[in-house]
Write a structure and sequence with these properties.
Layout (H helix, E strand, L loop, with lengths): L14 H15 L6 E7 L5 E11 L4 E6 L3 H9 L1 E8 L4 E12 L2 H9 L2 H9 L9 H15 L9 E6 L3 E6 L7 E6 L8 E5 L2
Antiparallel strand pairs: 1-2, 1-4, 2-3, 3-6, 4-5, 5-6, 5-7, 7-8, 8-9
Amino acid sequence: MAEVERGGIFAGADPFAIARRWLGEAEKVEPNDANAMALATVDAGGLPNARMVLLKDIEPEGFVFYTNYGSAKAGEIEAAGKAAFVLHWKSLRRQIRARGPVTREEGPQADAYYASRSLQSRLGAWASRQSQPLSSRAALMAEVAKVAALKGINPERPPFWGGYRIAPVEIEFWADGAHRLHDRFRWTRPGPGAAWDVARLNP
């Protein structure tokens, strides 16, 4: 890893550890959903899509979130095999950008996270045909009631619902600076598991 002068909030040899530290600081001051991130994908024609999702884990080599595998975002991820995201915290005046290949998380880890959700959220995962047209909210709630009667109080994780893991090949840490002279450090690597190179960028 190339040596660049870094310190303070940017200090550390592991970008995932820095990200966890920043998220921990944001959780103390953000009023809602400090783990909300803007996820970007592209459709078959190359047209970008972006939406907010909740980051659920920062692992030693990746960032994990969960969704319906029948959703628009999932279809675009499966087709392209890669995605990007931004975590932005107004209270801290910081952001993290990352992009890289994506793989599914549909094993015990996904089961455990699904089981940790409220019962209504678990039933909702079964009832929702995410991203598909819906005639009315009443129709959705009727489907939730139907699922509740069928699945009971301990529904298993739907086979069409699980996680995605983004293993970045690029991560940028950004912090607001006076007079728009921001601090930016970009971490890059040729592939997941490879050594990182770090560069300071102009604001």
